[in-house]
Amino acid sequence: MQITIGACGPVHLSCIAPPSKSFTHRALIIAALANGESEIIGQLDADDTRMTARALMQLGICLEWGRESIKVQGKGGVLTSPAEEINIQDSGTSMRLLTAISLLADGPVTLTGSARMQERPLGPLIDTLNTAGAKISSLNHPGCPPIRIEGSIPGGDISIDGSISSQFISSLLIAAPYANQETRIHLIGEPVSLPYILMTIHSMHAFGAKVVVDENPSGETVFIVSPDYQYKPRTYQIEGDFSSASYWFALAALCGGTATVSDLNPFSTQGDRRLVDILEKMGCTCSKEKNSITITRDMDKPLTGIEVNMADCPDIVQTVCMVAATAITTTRITGVHHLRIKESDRIAAIANGLRSLGGIIETDEDAITIHPAPLHGGVIHPHNDHRTAMSFAILGCFIGGVTILDAGCVTKSYPGFWEELRRIWQNAVLC
């Protein structure tokens, strides 16, 4: 599947944000560990979240996925060893969050995934759990899936390097209420994507667990989780996703006009809500209501570049880069080293894609610098990375003549993306 995008002028769009992928993953797993039936309302129905649901069913959880909600029959932290390996394809969130809770199964669990997933690192999480008493082994390449998981969650003092993926920490946190004793998770180094850890804690609190955040005398952050507060079943509403909404805000920033996205919580723990502030600094205006956010761009006022650290909001880096490529001054984005281990090497994807469209871009291990340059059409291959496809599609609406190959990869997080973009494009002023 490939889609070619023509240029359009000012947009005047209103749309509803898709449900949060991150909150859907967390709610599914936590509800599966609670003791009784939970209902998750307004879930994201996408490839990744379906992978988590399917994996939980392989672990013995009864789950009914409806159109408007999911009913999950939690088993109080008791899981079943599946007869076959669990293949979660390309869902890195599923792989990481399921690793620790698989220790609650009554026998070994094997987690595997796509060829790309088998290249993505799990080593720090595996080493941390093994040091704590688990028995996890990589079956092919050291520190990567597929992995065989056995043992239990003993709790106690656990130290983990948070500089590679926040999901390692979230995996430990979600499983911790079912450890044999109080768990104290010590963070080594500066954690990346800290808002995702806060989302995990928010979800845990919603289902009745307690997480105490402490700082020891050396300045080290410690998360303390007690087994006295295990998850309780409940009805849980999934909030809108800022990562997916980012494309429509960027569309208004690039093409001019107004984008209003509803079902967004302006005070969400989602780190990607920072895009609103970033776009304001680049020259857009913003207004916030109780349940929606509006971005406006006056095309008489050019966008300007910025210098920004985006370590805590990696999923909108590509979106910001598309906007930066049309600014009249240089943009430098730092704190992005962990983008190299996503669904693709996203730093390379940004650089190669923009260069193929005439962009001038420099990269190093932890930074991306984008200089002003005239852009033209071209062909983008996202290499099965949904965010690469969507971000370059939005840029295509500004410059025109951009063809996205493998366009179907967006179903990983936003199955309705192309339909929404077509509706918006048809109602915009064509260039």
UniProtKB/TrEMBL annotation:
Pathway: Metabolic intermediate biosynthesis; chorismate biosynthesis
Entry binding sites for phosphoenolpyruvate: K21, G92, R120, Q167, R346, R387, K412
Highest taxon in the source lineage: Archaea
GO biological process: amino acid biosynthetic process; aromatic amino acid family biosynthetic process; chorismate biosynthetic process
Catalytic residues identified in the record: D315
InterPro entries: Enolpyruvate_Tfrase_dom (IPR001986), EPSP_synthase (IPR006264), EPSP_synthase_CS (IPR023193)
EC number: 2.5.1.19
HAMAP family recorded: EPSP_synth
Entry protein name: 3-phosphoshikimate 1-carboxyvinyltransferase
Taxonomy of the source species: Archaea, Methanobacteriati, Methanobacteriota, Stenosarchaea group, Methanomicrobia
Protein encoded by which gene: aroA
